[in-house]
Backbone:
């Protein structure tokens, strides 16, 4: 008969405990909850939030369907009041025991959520908010996929347009006004809120560093009563002599409204180039609008690798990518937890499991260096900001956006400058 000494029994018992622990850990993985902070998907007062939230929801759902993530989503609306975000986050963290958070929809709600998740020590991934300062300066728990607004301006005015130098015609003419006539003249228009102003300030500073002449700098308030304000603004822009009108908006309805008003003010003749930036312009609502025809849009690029055909907006793309990013972090975190349990004789108490999971997921996100579907390479710096961005230009043609290369957009800008220069010279003669 086979006899097992007491040391052998200890080994067998240890192995059995390990097998049970691994089995329990796997069960836990399948039951983990991830919170989603979102705009109202049903009947919210803000049509803007409803539209953008719906796009994000499609991305999340497709990610869960195709990614086999192993976790479930718990959704809470961000609401319209400051306390709404706090209530939603507390409910998810304490009530639903979420291991991580995705969201939100608006810049304001995302900024509040980022501060709260740092307070509650819960990892958060921001797919879409593009506000300049949505992450707190003392951040330890938040990771952002979206490019900040200043990154767009830096790309446009330093890498694409570069420096707006006088043209050859400009340097050869003796006209007293010609020293400026061959230079790009820029108008900057932005939503009158903290995030719109931050984006506009960054754009103005970067463009001035490139010797680009700003001929108009102004804002508009959002809301149903701003029609006359936008008309007046558009007329002033038209009179400024701008070659390029850079408009910043996170509201699809406002983006459509100001675009139509600008085009009406410019009339049917030669008009400045309109370039839109922000989630108002890169939304599916704007890109499919007949009022957007001829408008250019700058957005974070969609990487077609492993990206479903249903992903036709950057909000959907980043939301889809965030599921795969979090899936990888959760998987790696659970492997690390299992390993730590095996080498610590399972000394951790059940009450600490959720905190340990959150911390391990945070650590996994910090070490991220991977390519995710629809977005491409992702890695984060010490502040939780994505270090890898790529951008693309679109032009709306008959309710449908087409991709425009950076070289093509640069050529369009150069042609607009040269066209206006020729008109000035002809009028001078």
Residues:
């Amino acid at each position: 008969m086979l006899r097992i000494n007491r040391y052998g029994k200890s080994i067998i018992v240890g192995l059995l405990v390990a097998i049970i622990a691994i089995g329990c850990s796997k069960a836990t993985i399948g039951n983990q909850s991830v919170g989603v902070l979102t705009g109202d998907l049903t009947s919210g007062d803000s049509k803007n939030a409803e539209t953008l939230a719906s796009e994000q929801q499609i991305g999340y759902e497709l990610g869960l369907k195709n990614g086999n993530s192993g976790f479930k989503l718990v959704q809470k609306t961000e609401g319209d009041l400051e306390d709404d975000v706090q209530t939603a986050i507390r409910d998810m963290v304490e009530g639903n025991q979420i291991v991580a958070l995705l969201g939100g929809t608006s810049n304001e709600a995302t900024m509040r959520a980022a501060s709260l998740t740092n307070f509650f020590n819960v990892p958060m991934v921001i797919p879409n908010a593009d506000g300049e300062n949505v992450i707190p300066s003392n951040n330890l728990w938040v990771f952002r996929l979206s490019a900040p607004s200043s990154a767009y301006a830096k790309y446009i005015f330093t890498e694409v347009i570069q420096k707006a130098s006088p043209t050859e015609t400009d340097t050869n003419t003796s006209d007293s006004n010609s020293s400026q006539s061959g230079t790009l003249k820029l108008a900057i228009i932005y939503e009158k809120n903290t995030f719109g102003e931050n984006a506009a300030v960054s754009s103005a500073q970067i463009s001035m560093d490139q010797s680009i002449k700003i001929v108009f700098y102004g804002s508009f308030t959002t809301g149903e009563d701003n029609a006359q304000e936008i008309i007046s603004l558009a007329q002033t822009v038209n009179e400024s002599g701008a070659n390029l009108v850079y408009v910043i908006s996170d509201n699809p309805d406002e983006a459509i409204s100001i675009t139509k008003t600008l085009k009406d003010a410019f009339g049917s003749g030669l008009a400045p180039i309109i370039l839109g930036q922000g989630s108002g312009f890169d939304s599916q609502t704007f890109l499919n609008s007949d009022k957007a025809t001829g408008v250019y849009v700058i957005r974070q690029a969609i990487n077609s690798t492993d990206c479903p055909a249903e992903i036709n907006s950057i909000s959907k793309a980043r939301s889809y990518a965030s599921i795969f990013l979090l899936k990888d972090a959760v998987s790696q975190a659970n492997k690390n937890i299992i390993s730590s349990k095996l080498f610590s004789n399972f000394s951790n108490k059940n009450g600490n499991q959720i905190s340990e999971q959150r911390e391990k997921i945070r650590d996994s996100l910090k070490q991220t260096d991977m390519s995710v579907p629809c977005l491409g390479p992702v890695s984060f710096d010490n502040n939780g900001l994505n270090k890898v961005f790529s951008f693309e230009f679109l032009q709306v043609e008959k309710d449908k956006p087409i991709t425009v290369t950076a070289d093509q957009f640069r050529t369009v800008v150069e042609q607009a400058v040269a066209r206006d220069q020729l008109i000035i010279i002809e009028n001078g003669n």
Summary: The radius of gyration is 26 Å. Residues 162 and 210 are 7 Å apart (CA to CA). The chain has two domains: 6-146+306-379, 149-300+390-428.
